[in-house]
């Protein structure tokens, strides 16, 4: 199975988006609500319908950026949030982005990547973050399967993957997940070494 642009566009066109909860996730909303610096450069990688970016934009985080290589997902977002700046939208492969951010948000992106890219994911996250930047987000606490997304992992795998590049500040079970994910998500804050 080729997890390329065509694959993901088709998933959106067929409404096969079981990961999409239709709103910002509660753990990320709580994290954003405690941020006071509205000038932080924040990237939502593999943004999909980008409810996190919509929330940040509506709350005046002026340097919010989204990235997805599915033009269907990007177009869905642009129709819904037509005041979001075009210059803050990257329609390209995550591994091709060369920018710097204070925070990169993880929300069902890691689990969408082919497992062969896991180390490359950690390295790229490190590269995208500015000095003392943070990877913040949610990771599934479930292996699921090995033949199609979502590709989850146990806690130890995540920690071993991130530890060479990040100081793990928080990696704990979410207490405020939506009901269908309660007990199956980790909340992560990892600071670039």
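^ Assign residues to that structure.
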């Amino acid at each position: 199975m080729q997890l390329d642009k065509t694959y993901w566009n088709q998933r959106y066109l067929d409404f096969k988006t079981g990961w999409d909860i239709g709103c910002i996730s509660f753990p990320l909303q709580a994290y954003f609500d405690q941020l006071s610096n509205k000038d932080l450069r924040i990237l939502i990688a593999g943004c999909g319908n980008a409810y996190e970016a919509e929330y940040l934009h509506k709350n005046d985080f002026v340097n919010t950026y989204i990235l997805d290589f599915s033009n269907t997902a990007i177009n869905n977002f642009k129709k819904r949030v037509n005041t979001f700046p075009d210059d803050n939208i990257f329609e390209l492969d995550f591994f091709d982005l060369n920018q710097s951010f204070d925070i990169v948000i993880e929300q069902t992106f890691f689990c969408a990547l082919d497992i062969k890219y896991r180390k490359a994911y950690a390295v790229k996250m490190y590269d995208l973050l500015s000095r003392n930047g943070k990877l913040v987000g949610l990771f599934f606490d479930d292996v699921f399967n090995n033949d199609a997304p979502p590709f989850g992992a146990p806690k130890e795998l995540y920690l071993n993957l991130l530890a060479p590049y990040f100081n793990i500040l928080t990696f704990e079970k979410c207490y405020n997940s939506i009901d269908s994910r309660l007990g199956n998500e980790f909340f992560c804050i990892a600071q670039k070494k």
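Residues 118-128 form the longest helix (11 residues).
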